[in-house]
Amino acid sequence: MASRGQRRLIPESRARLDDLKYEIAAEFGLPVYNPQYAHIHPDADSEFAAELGEFTRSQNVAWRDLTSRQNGSVGGEITKRLIQSAERSLSEFGKL
User: Fold this and answer.
1) pLDDT digits over 53-67, tens only?
2) What is the pLDDT of residue 55?
3) Has residue 29 got a pLDDT over 70?
4) Integer Cα distance of 64 and 96 in angstroms
5) Please, what is the average pLDDT of the chain?
6) φ, ψ for residue 64 (rounded to 5)?
7) CA-closest candidate to residue 23, choices 65, 64, 81, 69
8) Could you name the domain of life of the organism this protein comes from (predicted)?
9) How far apart are CA 83 and CA 69, in angstroms?
10) CB neighbours of 6 closer than 8 A, spacing ≥ 6?
């Protein structure tokens, strides 16, 4: 676990990880409220709101309101995708 005083190696990665988290939640059909998209449509929960149907604010939930299993499935999928991305990068690097 990282200490609070430690500097992130790539500070820009936080925004991409948040995007990935909300993208996966939308794919799994979890109505998690994403404040990043509130300016586009007040009831939009993510960029996939049109595909999934609009959720009203009363249906949007915070991450803390999801079950451990739901949060864990999102975290597990993030890990899976990051590993796949790293493997692709390493295989491309090996071909140079």
Assistant:
1) 444 444 678 889 999
2) 45
3) yes
4) 45
5) 77
6) -65, -20
7) 81
8) Bacteria
9) 21
10) none
Pick the closest to residue 31 from 81, 76, 74 (CA basis): 74
Exposed, middle or buried: residue 33 (CB in 10 Å: 0-12, 13-18, 19+)?
buried
Any idea which residue has 């799994």 for tokens?
28
pLDDT in tens, 40-55: 555 444 445 545 544 4
Contact 94, 70 (CB under 8 A): no
- In this prediction, residue 87 carries a pLDDT of 93
Q: Two tokens at 53?
A: 């149907």
CB 74 within 8 A of CB 28: yes
Picking from 28, 25, 60, the residue whose alpha carbon sits closest to that of residue 41 is 60
The torsion angles phi and psi of 6, rounded to 5 degrees, stand at -75, 145
